[in-house]
Write a structure and sequence with these properties.
Elements: H1 10-26, H2 32-44, E1 58-60, E2 65-75, E3 81-90, E4 97-99, E5 104-112, H3 124-127, E6 130-137, E7 140-147, E8 155-157, E9 164-165, E10 170-174, E11 178-184, E12 188-190, E13 197-198, E14 204-208
Antiparallel strand pairs: 1-14, 2-3, 2-13, 3-11, 4-10, 5-6, 5-9, 6-7, 7-11, 8-10, 12-14
Helix pairs in contact: 1-2
Length: about 210
């Protein structure tokens, strides 16, 4: 069964729909406000189908948005090795469903507390509330981070340690603007550049060399 709206958005949509009905009956002139909020939530929590073609040795984007940065770093918190980190900024107008970038098994899920800087700021990667999932793949460990922003205050992660996941699978979302990062092996051949627009579960961002 296809899901056109993320289930996490239904409470918001139902709430603003109810407020719209109440306003239409009792506060007609104010009804436009909850009506607009209802349509915004329907738009924000949309969950389109994505089509994958050839995914052999490929890593797809875990989120819709714009590539902010691509850098080689020494990740010592969870991976303990040098990796390539790709940061993707999601505006409130992007689809916010997060998707699995590569086939693998979920090793761990780490929830980290913090503050709520704007997601496009460089410090947000280390200071904001965030959730990391680490995947064991045929090419070693791959990590994805969901990072909150100034408006985004809640991360939804639907996977748990031990889950087998497949490229393009939906695994969560971040509510109302955010950043998603992916940490890949150095052997990955990056196929995107800063400024590129990508689509989660569809845009190929890297190819893994044997």
């Amino acid at each position: 069964m296809k899901n056109y709206i993320a289930r996490e958005g239904l409470p918001f949509i139902l709430l603003f729909t109810l407020l719209s009905i109440i306003c239409l009956y009792f506060f007609y002139n104010l009804a436009i406000i909850p009506l607009l909020l209802t349509f915004f939530c329907i738009y924000f929590f949309r969950d389109p189908e994505r089509v994958l073609t050839d995914t052999k040795d490929m890593i797809v984007s875990p989120a819709d948005g714009k590539i902010m940065s691509i850098e080689e770093i020494n990740e010592q918190k969870y991976l303990n090795k040098k990796v390539i980190k790709v940061s993707i900024f999601l505006s409130v107008f992007d689809v916010h469903i997060n998707r699995i970038p590569i086939d693998g098994k979920v090793l761990t899920v780490h929830n980290v507390g913090g503050i709520f800087l704007p997601a496009y700021k460089k410090d947000a990667s280390d200071k904001n509330v965030r959730t990391y999932i680490i995947l064991e793949t045929n090419w070693g460990k791959v990590m994805v981070a969901q990072i909150t922003g100034l408006i985004a205050r809640r991360i939804v992660c639907r996977v748990k340690p031990g889950d087998n996941v497949f490229i393009g699978d939906r695994y969560g979302l971040i509510k109302f603007g955010s950043c998603t990062e992916i940490y890949m092996p150095l052997e990955a051949e990056i196929l995107v550049k800063p400024g590129d627009k990508v689509r989660g579960g569809e845009s190929i961002i890297a190819k893994l060399r044997n």
